[in-house]
Amino acid sequence: MSRxxxxxxxxxxxxxxxxxxxxxxxxxxxxxxxxQRCSSNQRRFVCDILxxxxxxxxxxxxxxxxxxYFRIEVRKRRDEERPDIELSVxxxxxxxxxxxxxLRGMDEAPS
Length: 111
What we know:
Layout: E1 12-19, H1 25-28, E2 31-34, H2 40-56, E3 68-75, E4 85-90, H3 96-104
Antiparallel strand pairs: 1-2, 1-3, 3-4
């Protein structure tokens, strides 16, 4: 069981890519996934990806040198200002599904 299993329709997930030598907003490409707009299958799909990303998260090596990483923020209630869960996943350790979710959003999620 994952702590992401408890997320429901009030959750909001934000993904972005950060780090590198210079900040370039176009490379950050932030993406928000509002669970209110997702089916239960899509929410389960995203929660599975987040659980795999958490296993790859490594706080001690993130942001060193020119390394890029994915920042994941989860708000269990979309109206909260501060995230309930924050993860930083080095780009080279990120599951491919996380990279695809960041790039394409819910395009590849089941309906």
